[in-house]
Design goal:
single chain, 334 residues, mainly alpha
Length: 334
């Protein structure tokens, strides 16, 4: 019995505890990103935003959660019930499991694998499956068109995202996320790779279906796109999955370009690393919200042209220039 407790139960409890330490704050952060978005956009549009439920409206996310939990789940006639209900679970689960390899401070992670960046790229690529499943299983033309748009959009922008990641990997000389952050101790990568930082951030907006690239759920054309037939907790899982993806991709931007948990100057190193990590993620989220309040939605042909005719050639050229510079300076042996 003692061997079972020490050999299996204690390691399992330790892993479960680490997962909960990541997931619980993440769920609270997802709830309050929705609140922050409504408040920030309200201020930008000279509105008040949520301010009734609780002090300053701080309990509004919990009121929304209770409302969605208590509503009836409606299954459309002619839908595929299993796939219809599985789709939001897939979307939300993928947004959660991506955090398995993201280090939020030096030595603070769930799993520190040597190919963490490949794991992140694989998980983010799988996100399209939940949306395609939802569009097909809903048996609705609006939902199906939204799912097809999303599949083409996410595949298109993943190509440029992949090339930009390779530029960062070549510069850091590692696929390990912790080593990528440590390689930025002298200078954050957004400075030498500034054009790619901008393209990567815009591609993240398209990858997460955020404004001005929220064409899969364009209200004026497709009602709500792939979420048209969803209600109650199934809709809430899609909603939470979108905001969890925003936080996750902001974390990826922070690790690849903004120095992860590293402070901007050595004099500020007394502040804990996870605080810097959270501040940088908050800055990226604020930019996403600001863009939503500022820019009009792209047309679909403009979206695809930007991805294939602008971002893809630029990222490919930058990859060649990066590799050539590293070989010329002797940082990468031929």
């Amino acid at each position: 019995m003692a061997e079972f407790v020490s050999g299996y139960l204690i390691p399992f409890a330790w892993i479960l505890g680490k997962i909960l330490l990541f997931v619980v704050p993440l769920l609270v952060a997802v709830a309050y990103v929705t609140y922050a978005e409504r408040r920030i956009i309200g201020a930008m549009q000279m509105r008040i935003g949520p301010n009734v439920v609780g002090p300053f409206g701080l309990l509004q996310p919990f009121a929304d959660a209770v409302k969605l939990l208590t509503k009836e789940t409606v299954l459309p006639t002619g839908s595929s019930p299993v796939v219809f209900l599985l789709a939001p679970m897939v979307t939300f689960s993928l947004a959660m499991i991506a955090w398995a390899v993201i280090p939020i401070s030096d030595g603070v992670w769930i799993s520190n694998i040597n190919v963490g960046i490949l794991y992140l790229f694989a998980v983010s690529s799988l996100g399209v499956y939940g949306i395609v499943m939802a569009g097909w299983a809903s048996n609705s033309r609006y939902a199906f068109l939204g799912a097809m748009r999303s599949a083409a959009q996410m595949v298109s922008y993943e190509v440029s995202i992949g090339f930009i990641m390779i530029c960062v990997l070549l510069t850091a000389g590692s696929l390990n996320l912790t080593e990528i952050v440590n390689a930025q101790k002298g200078m954050w990568f957004f400075l030498p790779h500034l054009p790619m930082f901008i393209i990567f951030f815009i591609s993240v907006l398209a990858e997460t279906n955020r404004h001005p690239f929220d064409l899969p759920e364009a209200e004026s054309e497709l009602v709500a796109g792939f979420m048209t037939e969803y209600s109650s907790m199934a809709f809430a899982l899609f909603f939470l999955g979108e905001y969890a993806n925003m936080i996750m991709m902001s974390g990826v931007v922070t690790i690849l370009f903004l120095g992860g948990w590293l402070p901007p100057v050595e004099a500020l190193s007394f502040i804990p690393g996870f605080v810097w990590f959270a501040l940088k993620i908050s800055f990226c989220l604020f930019l996403m919200i600001w863009i939503r309040a500022t820019f009009p939605r792209y047309r679909y042909d403009q979206l695809m042209r930007l991805g294939w005719k602008v971002f893809l050639p630029l990222s490919l050229v930058w990859l060649i220039l990066t590799a050539g510079f590293l070989i010329y300076t002797g940082r990468v042996p031929v």
